Amino acid sequence: MFIKLNNCGQDGTLKEGIYLKPISYLQTDPKWANIDYSAKGEKTTVGASGCGPSCMAMVIATLKNKNVTPKDTCAWALSHRFKAPNQGTYYSYFAPQGKAYDISVAQLNGSSLYGKANQWANDYHAKALAEVEKGNMVICCMGKGNWTRSGHFILWYGLDAKSRALINDPNSTKAERTCADLSLLQSQVKYYFVVDVAGCQSHSDNYNSVKEKYEFDDATMAYLEAYKYADSLFALMLQDNKNMQKYQLNTILYILGYQYGKQVFEKLNK
């Protein structure tokens, strides 16, 4: 499992919380940019129209299988008829693509939020923000503005110290598209799709990845020792910051346990 703590390059600090920094893919990467991504009656490519599956490739590669790329997710979308002719990818694509890898992805709103400035829209913006603050990722379908001239999918995964959205944009690495004011994102988003990150991070995932990497006979004992050590650090962190969600801290907990486990493994192997 690929786990990494992110520091937004603009501030060097995170807003209150620990976020899982997803693997970054660009749909315009030469390795797959020119691969066909065409529905019947059109001609287009991954580089031109594959932003939705590219976002899902980042999610899947981060949470389940590091070898999955936009090439794979675009092929899956095509084979399951989720490519919309002369447009992008159908909104109905995300949930079944996630399910194929045992990842829960749920569409948050059923009607477009774009240009809406009312309580109904604000409620959905608040729900999406709450999901990110809990440690989940949110795929955003964007309307015309900072990210696109028409429509585009981006992956929102965290907040920096100034409450700006931390984003993986499959079509750009520009600062204004990867670290943006929440108000800007909320004014241009059409739909939110919530990725359940917490549901993908289990103790068994961490145990198996550790065991596979170090190949020790007594990996169970070593992992338990590592977890006990990390759990004590977890308790201290809770005392320091009671407002942090418990399963947000699990990300750093697992990392600390993994690092300590390596030391334990090395001792056991002597």
Task: Please characterize this protein's 3D structure.
The protein is an alpha+beta fold and 270 residues long. It has 2 domains: 46-195, Cathepsin B, Chain A (Alpha-Beta Complex), CATH 3.90.70; 202-268, no CATH class. It has helices at 46-49, 51-63, 70-79, 94-99, 119-133, 175-178, 182-188, 203-214, 219-240, 246-268, and strands at residues 105-107, 137-142, 152-159, 164-168, 179-181, 189-195. The chain has a 6-stranded antiparallel sheet with strand order 1-6-2-3-4-5, with helices on both faces. The radius of gyration is 20 Å and the shape is globular. The model is unreliable at 1-16, 202-207 and 242-247 (pLDDT under 50). InterPro entries: Peptidase_C39-like. It comes from Aminipila terrae.
